[in-house]
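step=encode ok
step=design start
structure_in=
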């Protein structure tokens, strides 16, 4: 294993590898540490509505490969990491944040509480439940109508329906996956994020909770030269970059 790369070096090194060397196994504990780095990713309201399924069982990888349409990145993988969203755990995670906050700010009369203390307790105790709660989509649409009307007069947070929060937790999980892949690259390990899979069958195979959703499956290994499918292509940077200000 080469010396650990800097962040910039790891970003440059990372490629989506489609073919891994079967003769070069991975250090499972090192991969686990990279997953721990994934859990440090920024996430919406620190709700951490994710799970990481680390698969090292070769038989299970073989069973999952057809569910990834037998992509080379799945068939030749040494290990897999399945990034899973858990929007259904919002009550538990909001309570965990609230308990942490109460530990930081012991109970005292409201008049003695700082504004920051009052706001953050209200945020996790009242605002988060209001945003995440829904009832067959009905309450979500009521919230959307109220937000739309209020938003005619002042700026307001508009992502209040169940489908909006689903997008939020998937964005959050994607940030964790990127942390993981950059951390792996820093150690000279390779990855490939795979969105092409039968997520329902993978979910059933892994016995995931009913409210869980698969964000992506990341294959892991050591690259073979033919695993890099050509030079990296990006559209001209000027097409995607716009600067506003001096």
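sequence_out=
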């Amino acid at each position: 294993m080469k010396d650990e790369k800097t962040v910039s070096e790891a970003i440059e090194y990372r490629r989506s590898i489609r073919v891994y060397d079967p003769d070069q196994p991975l250090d499972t504990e090192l991969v686990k540490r990279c997953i721990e780095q994934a859990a440090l990713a920024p996430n919406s309201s620190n709700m951490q509505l994710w799970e990481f399924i680390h698969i090292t069982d070769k038989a299970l990888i073989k069973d999952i490969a057809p569910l990834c349409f037998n992509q080379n990145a799945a068939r030749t993988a040494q290990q897999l990491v399945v990034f899973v969203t858990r929007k259904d755990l919002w009550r538990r995670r909001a309570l965990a944040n609230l308990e942490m906050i109460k530990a930081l700010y012991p109970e005292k009369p409201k008049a003695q509480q700082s504004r920051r203390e009052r706001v953050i307790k209200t945020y996790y105790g009242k605002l988060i439940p209001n945003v995440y709660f829904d009832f067959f989509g009905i309450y979500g649409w009521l919230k959307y109508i109220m937000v739309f009307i209020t938003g005619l007069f002042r700026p307001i947070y508009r992502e209040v329906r169940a489908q909006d929060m689903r997008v939020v937790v998937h964005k959050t999980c994607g940030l964790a996956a990127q942390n993981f892949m950059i951390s792996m690259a820093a150690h000279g390990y390779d990855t490939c994020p795979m969105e092409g899979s039968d997520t329902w069958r993978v979910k059933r195979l892994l016995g995931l909770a009913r409210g869980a959703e698969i964000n992506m499956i990341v294959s892991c290994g050591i690259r073979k030269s033919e695993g890099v499918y050509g030079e990296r292509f990006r559209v001209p940077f000027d097409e995607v970059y716009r600067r506003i200000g001096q």
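step=design ok
step=annotate ok -> The mean pLDDT is 95.
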